[in-house]
Amino acid sequence: MVQPSARRIALAALRRWREEKRFADSIISGLLAKADLTYPDRAFALQLFYGVLRNLTLLDFWIGCLRSSQVEHSLRDLLRLGLYQLFFLETAQHAAVYETVELASRRQRAVTNAVLRTAARQREDLLRRAVAQPLSVRASHPQFLVARWQQRFGGKNAEELCRWNNLPPSIYGRINRLKISSKEFLQLYPEAKPVARNSDLVEFDALPAPKAFGALNRGHCYIQDPSTVIACQVLEPKPSEKILDACAAPGGKTAYIALRMKNKGTIVACDRDAERLAILKDNMVRLGIDIVRSVRHDWTRGRIPEEIASVAPFDRILVDAPCSNTGVMRRRVDVRWRFRPGDLTRMPDEQFQITRCAVSLLKPGGVLVYSTCSLETEENEQVVTRMLDQFPQMRLSRQEFCLPFRDHFDGAFAARLVNPD
Ligand SMILES: C[S@@+](CC[C@H](N)C(=O)[O-])C[C@H]1O[C@@H](n2cnc3c(N)ncnc32)[C@H](O)[C@@H]1O
Question: 247 CA to middle of ligand 1, Å?
């Protein structure tokens, strides 16, 4: 039997991703769960798989430079993997070529060897040709997205955004002060580095490093990008209030809201996805939060369930809407390849529908925060404008953006709408 190795797992993941059109995270975590790899090998498999997905267009550009004839899919996967090691990793050239050829079928060995050796020989020329390509090729992003961002943010920021999306994401944890103080946390987990702008947040070098893993299991922290706390800050939840978290799973924001409420009051955490709600429930138990009632509900279908209606009206409502995720492309590596221009019509309609439904549950004087991790106006300001058109009595009192190229965290948007008394 062929032993699993990081490279073999990465290749299998690339093939499945191409053939099955499933989420990249689910494919690689499924394969890793079945493989008996050491921690560094798991990390290497992830680096290879995500690295290839991040640089797909550029790797294919080079394949086109190196081979004029048609390249079948399975050979392309191999060449992408080999070229990624040659051009993006510190892997020694002979190892990158040898190990990739080892993964090839007998039929593909000679051509894999020849293409990768030529690539190594022509390295400087291939790099020079890459620099001359448009941003969508150089930085491997769909042309329509690059064009949107260039128009909206300017050429320099669009370039910086694409560069940011291609970096491996930093790993941040939010200290769960319901269980441990920031000071104790930093003493217990000295590998965690404080984040300058927010004393609730720390940065880890890597996960799952054994100690950081311990911090998660004991509910001492929750893995969460600093941008995700903005919506909760804009919501300003207070102890003893009644809060509706309309799109809550897996519960990162629910948990932070509960912390700000000092675990006093009521949070109704709603989501349409049963599996994700189960994760939310586990998360609340681990984090020691007991004010959350989870309810499964799809805001676009049927009547509002009794478990929600009976708690209404709410002091505050968070609608952390499903979105295109263009602000978190650094973490959700395959988002750029799944995204279609039509999503920017479909998603805003759904976002508006969910928010409109939630508003009916807000008390007079109550606050509704609409948030996304999208950078696109259609999903952010335009949804808010539509809400204000439909509910002219509501007032927009605050709007926050987190832009990766400016703020150096994931992208996020939050708007605070206030109901009149
Ligand atoms: C951005 S995620 C929420 C993340 C969550 N707030 C957190 O901080 O962990 C959006 C969530 O909305 C849920 N969702 C999507 N459409 C929905 C709908 N029509 N009704 C209820 N939930 C929905 C998805 O299942 C997903 O869990």
Answer: 4
pLDDT digits (tens, 9 = 90+) for 45-67: 999 999 999 999 999 999 999 99
Q: What is the pLDDT of residue 3?
A: 60
- Which domain CATH number covers 339? 3.40.50.150
d(CA 251, CA 295) in angstroms, rounded, equals: 12
Q: Is 232 a catalytic residue?
A: no
Q: Are residues 252 and 394 in the same domain?
A: yes
pLDDT of residue 207: 61
- The answer to whether residues 200 and 136 belong to one domain is no
Burial class (CB in 10 A: 0-12, 13-18, 19+), 168: middle
Nearest CA to ligand 1 atom 20: 298
10 Å CB burial of residue 249 (0-12, 13-18, 19+) is: buried
The DSSP result for 357-385, as a single string, is HHHTTEEEEEEEEEEES---GGGTHHHHH
CA distance 154 to 333: 23
